[in-house]
User: Which sequence fits this backbone?
């Protein structure tokens, strides 16, 4: 008891030292080199203090690579060891924490690890000793006994007999009515849920998310299809697989349907909720205006559900009209181009499936469509490399989608779309852009590049790279561009809200028929939601033709290209 009293006092002193060091660091940028020396000395002083405080039970290991030190602390008379891996930015950065204990249950170990991580992140510059002290107090508050070294270790036979006697005593002491009242119904396991998702054809696997405990990062979520559900002992180290006991919950379309922590089971209804996954689906479909479907509809229900959930053919839009017209199928060299919105554009298709001559005039329909667009060509190597990595990952999991990828030499950000029906109108647009070149150059934010981060989707049919923290000057630049075009009588045919983005891939009808889906499964690209692609300078402008032809470098045929 006295030993831990000393630990508390020394821990407070250590935290005061770190707080003072952090305050000194922020006072002046001119003292940066001096502060670095102080932090280095502080680390050495702390390690020296720990070695003294934990005599014979503290080990400091010098390592190379990401971590510069590994500190192993073993509190006296406790069956637990804390491993702290320190980077060169410690104590500013939180150390990586590992826990080893034979006496501690695995669930308690996960909870303790998550508690220590949360404490370290919420208390900047926490000392290692204070983290150990807080962890021991947490164990004491939870009445968790770790006196592994002083406690008599029972044999397996003794332990088994003791448990049997305890069960017998409980059975005798309980009244029959009390036993029945206190008994909880058995809950279906995580593996039961996995098998149901795998084999029930009425369930869409890519709509399920798995919440699980990661040893390092704590609670994480990934799509069901991102995992390999084979025996974990038989998979390769490159495959994402987890022990089933780490699964904490399952979500269906954002709603938790099975939760180990709260004994919730809305997949089978095994815990007495009288609610199953079919009820959840029916409720969600009702909330989105879909008709309830009876159980005997089977696979027809599944097909209708997928189509209505991801796309309404009459209202599908994606804010990038040049992509809405043509999607490259192939590598760009001698490849075919299919009109996503019209079956008639597929080889061998007829006009009868798409046109009603009595109510819709095809000539005027085509006249309302844009046939040229003005774009910023993506030239940054980091962005191009990042886009290629996303596409390669998707193609490796679904090879048939390879035909839907936008070649990296055709990547662009569409600024607006226009209708130019005659050569004279094209020349007028070229002249307009050349005359406005100097004005546009003065407006464009040259010191603020466009930051591309994360993959997102339009209606799960288009995967695109997002522009984050877009400068207001860029929106002003686009608006002035449209103003210049309007003044010259050029018809702008933008039918969607301007969302700056680069299209990475878009599913076409031939491919959707080949894979049996009209959408791109979100789990294929969800791991890139926070990926940093890079910065693109707004330094070029291209008037591009929407068509099948491409230039020698793979980019769209352009009527004019300008440096701005």
Assistant:
């Amino acid at each position: 008891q006295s030993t831990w009293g000393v630990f508390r006092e020394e821990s407070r002193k250590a935290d005061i030292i770190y707080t003072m060091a952090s305050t000194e660091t922020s006072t002046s940028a001119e003292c940066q080199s001096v502060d670095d020396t102080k932090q280095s000395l502080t680390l050495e002083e702390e390690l020296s203090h720990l070695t003294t405080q934990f005599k014979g039970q503290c080990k400091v290991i010098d390592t190379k690579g990401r971590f510069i030190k590994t500190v192993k602390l073993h509190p006296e008379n406790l069956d637990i060891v804390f491993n702290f891996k320190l980077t060169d930015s410690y104590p500013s950065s939180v150390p990586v924490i590992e826990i080893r204990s034979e006496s501690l249950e695995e669930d308690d170990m996960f909870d303790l690890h998550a508690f220590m991580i949360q404490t370290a992140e919420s208390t900047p510059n926490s000392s290692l000793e204070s983290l150990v002290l807080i962890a021991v107090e947490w164990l004491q508050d939870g009445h968790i006994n770790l006196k592994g070294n002083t406690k008599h270790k029972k044999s397996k036979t003794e332990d088994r007999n003791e448990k049997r006697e305890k069960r017998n005593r409980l059975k005798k002491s309980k009244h029959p009515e009390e036993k029945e009242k206190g008994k909880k119904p058995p809950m279906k396991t995580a593996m039961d849920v996995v098998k149901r998702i795998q084999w029930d054809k009425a369930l869409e696997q890519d709509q399920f998310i798995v919440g699980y405990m990661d040893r390092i990062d704590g609670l994480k979520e990934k799509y069901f299809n991102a995992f390999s559900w084979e025996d974990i002992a038989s998979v390769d180290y490159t495959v994402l697989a987890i022990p089933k006991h780490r699964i904490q919950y399952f979500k269906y379309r954002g709603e938790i349907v099975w939760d180990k922590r709260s004994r919730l089971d809305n997949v089978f209804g095994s815990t007495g909720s009288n609610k199953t996954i079919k009820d959840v689906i029916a409720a969600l479909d009702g909330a989105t205006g879909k008709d309830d479907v009876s159980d005997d509809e089977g696979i027809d229900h599944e097909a209708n559900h997928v189509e209505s959930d991801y796309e309404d053919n009459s209202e599908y839009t994606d804010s990038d009209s040049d992509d809405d017209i043509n999607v490259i199928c192939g590598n760009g060299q001698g490849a075919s181009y299919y009109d996503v919105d019209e079956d008639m554009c597929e080889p061998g298709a007829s006009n009868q499936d798409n046109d009603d001559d009595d109510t819709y005039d095809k000539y005027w329909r085509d006249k309302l469509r844009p046939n040229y667009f003005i774009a910023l060509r993506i030239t940054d190597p980091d962005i191009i490399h990042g886009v290629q990595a996303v596409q390669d990952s998707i193609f490796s999991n679904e090879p048939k989608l390879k035909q839907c990828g936008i070649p990296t030499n055709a990547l662009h950000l569409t600024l607006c779309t226009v209708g130019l029906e005659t050569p004279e109108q094209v020349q007028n647009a070229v002249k307009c852009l050349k005359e406005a070149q100097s004005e546009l150059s003065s407006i464009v934010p040259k010191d603020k590049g466009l930051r591309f981060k994360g993959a997102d989707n339009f209606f799960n049919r288009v995967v695109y790279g997002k522009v984050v923290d877009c400068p207001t000057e860029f929106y002003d630049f686009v608006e002035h561009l449209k103003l210049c075009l309007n003044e010259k009588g050029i018809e702008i045919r933008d039918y969607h809200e301007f969302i700056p983005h680069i299209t990475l891939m878009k599913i076409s009808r031939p491919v959707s028929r080949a894979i049996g889906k009209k959408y791109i499964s979100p789990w294929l690209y969800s791991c890139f939601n926070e990926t940093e692609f890079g910065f693109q300078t707004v330094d070029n402008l291209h008037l591009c033709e929407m068509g099948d032809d491409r230039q020698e470098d793979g980019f769209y045929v352009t009527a004019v290209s300008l440096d701005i």
Notes: The chain has 16 helices and 20 strands.
